[in-house]
Amino acid sequence: MIGRQGKRAVSIPLPQIDLPRFRYGSKQSGGVGQGEGNVGDPIGRGDGQDGSGQAGKDPGQHIIEVDVTLEELAEILGEELELPNIEPKGKENIVSDKAKYSRIRRVGPDSLRHFKRTYKEALRRQVSSGLYDYKNPVIIPIRDDVRYRSWTDVPAPQSNAIIIYMMDVSGSMGREQKELVRHTAFWIETWLQSQYKQIEICYIVHDAAAKEVDQETFYHIREGGGTRISSAYNLCNRIITERYPPDEWNIYPFHFSDGDNWGNGDTQICMKLLETELLPKANLFCYGQVRSLYGSGNFLHDLNHHFGDEDSISSYEISRRDDILDAIKAFLGKGR
């Protein structure tokens, strides 16, 4: 798991085992191969080593941290889980001009001087004018020989994506459940950032009511009320409508809950919101259900029963850390 995370790299702690090795002492200090003795005599044991102890079963406590860039981590993740590259949808491409150094000019700053082209121009001039000496091949450029790199503006499409995290923070969601969500979100972001030029992230927390928060609040807040999932879906839909037009953005809502939901038909309201609002606008909607001692877990069953094998929605139950990578494969394995 991740030890430390920076802007462009992460540190992964790896346990290490020190292998034994021989150490040679000074001569005439005793030990194997020195002193008197006959063939077949047993070798004496060291003090306090009667062999009555048991072999150790725990790993050594030697830990090192290996730095891995996010790009390398995304590549490892994609290969390990066989994730397909995402095909951006619709008109998500925002075209901007990008400078490409593909031209040569006679004037320019020294920082853009093209040494190879300058050398060729000087060689061509000396050969054509008869100044080139094969016995003393010295090439001396003059001012007219100097060439500089220049650029042209080319349109460069940039695929943009928005991740909208929604999480139940009612009393049944404890610290362990939020840790599962945090680790799952890290791998989601790592993969999607390798697929898009720009990623924005929104955070929504909800119990009976939903509100948008920052990242720090998202992972540490805890409410004590009941759960009304439709409040989060309504807020998510409003954020998309007001700030992220579906024809310009690739939209990825992720919802995490323990599966408990308020009665009075709120689950049916959620299914209607998904069917009529969120799924038509999103590339993919993902629901991760983290197991809790206090949650009923019914929402995952209702979601799968209502939508079946719908391609635009994925769900998975995350009971422990070992389930995280399987959840990532279930969420992102469709290449949407």
Kindly list the characteristics that best describe this protein.
single chain, 336 residues, alpha/beta, seven-stranded mixed beta sheet, three-stranded antiparallel beta sheet, 8 helices, 10 strands, 30% helix
Task: Describe it.
This protein has 336 residues and is α/β, with parallel strands linked by helices. The chain has helices spanning 70-81, 115-128, 175-193, 215-220, 229-243, 266-281, 298-307, 324-332; strands at 4-5, 9-16, 62-69, 93-105, 148-168, 198-206, 210-213, 250-257, 285-290, 313-318. The strands form two sheets. Strands 4, 5, 6, 7, 8, 9 and 10 form a seven-stranded mixed sheet that branches. The mean pLDDT is 78.
Tell me, briefly, the overall form: flat
Q: What's the helical proportion of residues?
A: 25-40%
Report the biggest beta sheet as strand number plus sense, adding barrel if it closes.
Answer: 7 strands, mixed
Could you tell me the radius of gyration in angstroms? 32 Å
**Assembly category:** single chain
Strand content: 25-35%
**How many individual helices?**
8
Task: For the record, give the distance between the C-alpha atoms at the N and C termini, rounded to a whole number.
Answer: 26 Å
Number of strands: 10
Strand/helix succession:
EEEHEHEHEEHHEHEHEH
**Average pLDDT figure:** 78
Poorly predicted regions: none
- Sheet/helix structural class: alpha/beta
